[in-house]
Write a structure and sequence with these properties.
alpha+beta; six-stranded mixed β-sheet; 6 helices; 24% helix; 24% strand; globular; DNA-binding
Length: 259
DNA sequence: ATGCCTAATGCAATTAGA
């Protein structure tokens, strides 16, 4: 079974790209971020016609996350990250799909740092750490996938020295990611490729993709019982080269069937 | 090395992204 995550950067604006990628890559489960569409404008019919059941949490203009599946309809287990009833951003949705708890998240960008947006990012991260620990404690197989807006290490950005004050790479952000992993999560992509330069995002301008000047900020985290089934993990760079595409590329993991 | 591009909103110019 393949589970993918893809920041589509506008699910309606990029719908042709998304549908083409679904048809060509045929992932079993897909976590989407940055729908940039209100709840009622999610392209439900087009996605169903492509063979996928879906749940989504939309929002006008910004954010928005979804879970797609062609291996049984996702059964929603959570909508919104717990811990702050005043948080109105649509950045987290979670479902039981084909024997796995799957979470699709869009962690706040946090720039500029310092500032209120950065404070919101850190609070959101701490809430995620609390909730992730609860998920682990259930002992269930869990996959947390999405745009974390964090380069975990210096290997995950071309010129780390230029990013030290940035909300995507600041020490406290990397520390939060490391604390999350230390709970017992496996960073699937880095586990399969321990030493490679891997990026999942390239800015649009100045031929950043062609020059491979990117960031690794989209991650798939596996709970221990899922990590035991990890077969492969890759970035699918193909759709990043298409016309009118997202600035992110999909990331996927391949899992062995449960023995 | 600074959004140099792009989407959404709404119809110009602003906000946000990373």
């Amino acid at each position: 079974m393949r589970i993918a995550t893809y920041n589509v950067n506008g699910v309606n604006g990029r719908l042709p790209v998304l549908l083409r990628w679904l048809a060509e890559a045929q992932p079993h489960i897909v976590c989407l971020q940055e729908l940039k569409a209100p709840q009622e404008r999610f392209p439900e019919n087009a996605i169903r016609d492509a063979g996928y059941d879906a749940i989504w949490h939309g929002q006008k203009a910004w954010n928005g996350v979804a879970i797609l599946s062609r291996v049984g309809a996702p059964v929603e287990t959570r909508r919104g990250l717990p811990g702050d009833p005043d948080d109105v951003h649509s950045r987290y949705v979670e479902a039981a799909v084909n024997g796995v708890i799957v979470a699709s998240l869009y962690l706040p960008n946090g720039n500029p740092r310092p500032g209120p947006k950065f404070d919101y990012k850190m609070r959101w991260f701490e809430r995620l750490i609390v909730h992730a620990a609860e998920l682990l404690a259930t002992g269930m197989p869990v996959v947390i996938a999405g745009d974390f807006n964090v380069m975990p290490t210096e290997r995950d950005v071309r010129r780390p020295e230029r990013w030290l004050d940035d909300a995507l790479f600041a020490p406290e952000v990397r520390d939060a990611y490391a604390r999350l992993l230390r709970q017992g999560w496996t960073d699937a992509l880095r586990t399969i490729h321990p030493d490679e330069t891997i990026y999942t995002f390239w800015k649009y301008f100045r031929g950043a993709f062609e020059r491979n000047d990117g960031l690794r900020i989209d991650h798939i985290l596996l709970s221990p019982s899922v990590a035991d089934r990890l077969k492969d993990a890759q970035v699918d760079r193909t759709p990043r080269g298409w016309d009118k595409t997202s600035d992110h590329a999909p990331v996927w993991v391949s899992l062995r069937d449960k023995s």
